[in-house]
TrEMBL record:
Its EC number is 2.7.13.3. Signal peptide: none annotated. This is histidine kinase. Keywords: ATP-binding, Kinase, Membrane, Nucleotide-binding, Phosphoprotein, Transferase, Transmembrane, Transmembrane helix, Two-component regulatory system. One of its GO terms (molecular function) is phosphorelay sensor kinase activity. Residues 315-530 form the Histidine kinase domain. It catalyses: ATP + protein L-histidine = ADP + protein N-phospho-L-histidine. The chain crosses the membrane at residues 132-151. One of its GO terms (biological process) is regulation of DNA-templated transcription. Residues 243-295 form the PAC domain. It is an enzyme of class 2 (transferase). Residues 167-212 form the PAS domain.
Length: 535
């Protein structure tokens, strides 16, 4: 505390306090007074010891309050020093207290006679406000506890979701790694965004090396580079619709393989078309198997033709015997006329012309047999079915005559041409006609009528072969086109199976149904020429 040093000219109050010090060993406080500067002060004197004199100090109350009342008390309370009459001597207050009744007083008498310390709050909380404050504190505490509980549950739920997400990610990655189908995602510029392990194995490049690549790709074949670039540009311009195509890829070792590519639009979460997701399937083995099956089908068809030819051997021998007998007769007649040395040459020329015609007929029969049984690749060309049906009926006419079967052909005049292999279509019709004729063997002779019709139906060409036989057993009907299934006692069960293979090779259909008046109707449908030729 600041002190006022004693001077030669001391106030009377100071001398009086100093005088009282000599009578007491304790500090002596004087009365409150006003200093020459107008400040309220109090004098204090204390003995310094026997023979050592005394210490005299004058304490300013204003300085005492200003320096020794903490700021955090002064912010909330008005601090005042008053005398015995209640007169304020000094204070440390910002404003007048709101409620004087809330004042708290402390007496400093003794040692300071009549001095009181008064403390009053600036704002007095009402009982309601106090309760509200307590309620708010309790509510905040409960809210904090509730928030902690909710946060704990949220963290636990999020942890479970993250675990499920991690498990789902691992599961999907395992699925992707186990796929044999290659997956490839590209943006509109063709830059690879993603490939799976199967695609990387397929093309022989690591996933890291493929991601981010732009066309041309290292797995594109050199001979199809321009075609592939054109397809890529067309895909970038096309609408987001699924597409598919076949092409060839190349591995780093130079080996090439056939693939089937399915392109589907790559749509993000906002519904925007970001690129294309491709599914790539290696069809090298499939194409090899298809080629092998095609070769087997051709071999089986040729075998079937040989079997058919064997079954028709007697008929063919009879058909060949007629022109050969005529040739022999005309040759003998010509020899006789030349031997007679007649001057008229016209009968000889006529006989020789007929002999030549019969030789041509025999040659045609032999060539037809050779074409029928020759080992050859299918040759697809534009052909008229009415001519094929006419030649086929002529080929089996004698055989049908021996079986007592009358054949009726009805061909629509506006029948359009089709793309087909003539020999295979002839083999198909021969099998169906002979099967129908043989099926009518138990029927009366008058009922053995076989109908062959050809017309246009729903954008296709349809050929029907209808017999008047007893029909097909219901148990055999579902398996009629299977191999080794036959309705004949001595049949091998390969004829109709070969017929179905021939029709499928032409991208057509072969079906059967019961006839309206009995018997069975076989229907062959072939696509019109605007359809693509078989590969």
């Amino acid at each position: 505390m600041p002190s006022v040093p004693a001077s030669a000219r001391q106030p009377e109050a100071v001398r009086r306090v100093l005088g009282m010090t000599r009578l007491s060993a304790r500090p002596i406080y004087g009365d409150l007074r006003t200093s020459s500067e107008g400040a309220t002060v109090v004098d204090m004197a204390a003995s310094a010891g026997p023979g050592a004199g005394a210490i005299v100090a004058t304490v300013s109350l204003e300085t005492l309050i200003a320096r020794h009342v903490p700021w955090w008390i002064a912010e909330r309370y008005a601090v005042r020093l008053t005398d015995a009459s209640g007169r304020m001597l000094v204070e440390k207050a910002r404003v007048e207290p709101l409620d004087p009744r809330q004042r708290h007083e402390i007496s400093f008498d003794p040692p300071l006679r009549g001095l009181m310390l008064s403390i009053a709050p600036y704002r007095v909380a009402s009982e309601f406000s106090s309760r509200m404050l307590v309620a708010a504190i309790v509510g905040l505490a409960l809210l904090a506890v509730l928030s902690l509980v909710v946060l704990q549950r949220h963290v636990a739920r999020r942890r479970r979701i993250e675990q499920r997400l991690a498990s789902e990610t691992v599961f999907r990655r395992a699925m992707e790694d186990s796929l044999t189908i290659g997956m490839r995602a590209r943006d509109h510029e063709g830059r690879i965004l993603y490939v799976n392990a199967a695609f990387a194995r397929m093309v022989g490049h690591p996933v890291e090396a493929l991601t981010g690549l732009r066309p041309p790709m290292p797995y594109w074949t050199h001979d199809r580079l321009a075609e592939t670039m054109a397809r890529h540009a067309e895909l970038a311009r096309s609408a987001p619709m699924p597409q598919s195509f076949e092409t060839r890829f190349r591995r780093p070792d130079g080996s090439e393989f056939d693939v089937l590519v399915y392109e589907a639009p790559l749509i993000d979460a906002t519904g925007v078309h970001r690129g294309w997701m491709g599914s790539i399937i290696d069809i090298t083995d499939r194409k090899a198997a298809a080629e092998f099956a095609r070769a087997q089908a051709e071999s089986l068809a040729r075998t079937g033709r040989l079997v058919t030819l064997g079954e028709m051997a007697s008929t063919l021998a009879h058909e060949l015997n007629q022109p050969l007998a005529a040739i022999a007769s005309y040759a003998a007649g010509s020899i006789n006329m030349l031997s007679a040395e007649r001057g008229d040459r016209e009968p000889v020329l006529t006989a020789l012309r007929k002999l030549s015609q019969q030789a041509d007929r025999a040659g045609q029969i032999i060539r037809r047999i050779q074409d029928f049984v020759r080992k050859r690749e299918p040759r697809f060309s534009l052909m008229r079915l009415d001519a094929v049906i006419e030649d086929t009926v002529a080929f089996v006419a004698d055989d049908l005559r021996n079986l007592g079967v009358r054949i009726v052909t009805v061909v629509a005049p506006d029948l359009p041409p089709v793309v087909a292999d003539r020999i295979l279509i002839e083999q198909l019709l021969i099998n169906l006609i002979r099967n129908g004729a043989e099926a009518m063997a138990p029927m009366p002779a008058a009922a053995r009528i076989l109908e062959v019709r050809a017309g246009r139906e729903s954008g296709e060409v349809a050929i029907t072969v209808a017999d008047a036989g007893p029909g097909i057993d219901a148990e055999v009907a579902p398996r009629l086109f299977d191999a080794f299934v036959s309705t004949k006692a001595e049949g091998m069960g390969m004829g109709l199976n070969i017929c179905r293979s021939i029709v499928e090779l032409h991208r057509g259909r072969l079906v059967h149904r019961p006839g309206t008046g009995g018997g069975t109707v076989f229907t062959v449908t072939l696509p019109l020429p605007q359809e693509a030729l078989p590969a």
